[in-house]
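Illustration: pepsin A.
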Amino acid sequence: MMQWALALCALVAFSECIRVPMIKHKTARQKLQEKGLWEEYRKKFPYQPMVKFQQQQDGVQSMTNDADLSYYGVISLGTPPQSFSVVFDTGSSNLWVPSVYCNSAACNNHRQFNPDISSTYQGTQQSLRIRYGTGSMTGILGYDTLEVGGITVSNQIFGLSESEAQFMEHMEPDGILGLAFPSIASAGATPVFDNMMRQGLVSQDLFSVYLSGDSESGSVVLFGEIDSQFYTGSFTWVPLTSETYWQIELDSITINGNVACADGCQAIVDTGTSLIVGPSSDISNMNAWVGATTDQYGDALVSCENIENMPEVTFNINGHAFTLPASAYVFQRNSGCTAGFGNGGTQQLWILGDVFIRQFYTIFDRHNNMVAFASVA
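Result:
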């Protein structure tokens, strides 16, 4: 499968292989720490990573406030184009950006879409609501021309925010571009990648993601393309267990002979979550096994001087081992070092977020309903 995918993309027009560079910006945590506001912020907006994956009700998409997200790309909407930075989020399905209809503080310090200056905009009376752990985004739906990676998606439905959760004021991106399945899209809106497939804009019904490590540039999302420069070895293909999120079966997680997810568990591969998140009991054990101490906010504190002595963490998936060294799962900040494992509470679900994806170039295959991982080059 991998060989024909690479060959096919080389034969088609360049415009059908869509590459969107992503920049690694400062996180909300970093920006707030610089202003001396982080302690106040984290008390007011506690991290609730599993809110995003709770059962959808009344077609409302849930999201969470993640202060450590750092990868964003640029899109444009309208004619002439209006540019926005967005999170390319495989854990949600809607596209939305701030609009001139919004007076929230979060809108006032981000770029805002103005439908009145776009000759191709078509409005609707349909409302959109996306629920966050600490508030919500509300707005209306409209249609307009979307430009992504140099290609044009016609009549893309998207949300124009009228209010935004307070914590979004401190986030770098303007909005979110969801890359999960239509079944979880709020208001039944057609996701961007589904329109790319319908309009014949991608040579293959898949996209892939490479996240760079420490460098600010180099990260990319590739629509319809797999690029051999980003990985070594071969891919491990894993079937989805649900066509809602990009959900797979985890066999187990091992650390120095200790086992989490011992009987197998479900995991969502999510570019829109910064950490690896799991049930509280397993995460507590994992943090103890790597020598981390959890503080009152749930951060797993480790000694920056001890990173090279910390154990590897191995995720066993579909009979293959995917191993993270401590240098991959530890965040090194000016304020200290923390392990990248987040407490997901009582929900028996794991999230393989950016901590995992940085180590493994990932394919999201809609044609075969699979994901694939290969070690990054």
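Reading the tokens back as a structure: Residues 72 and 87 are 5 Å apart (CA to CA).
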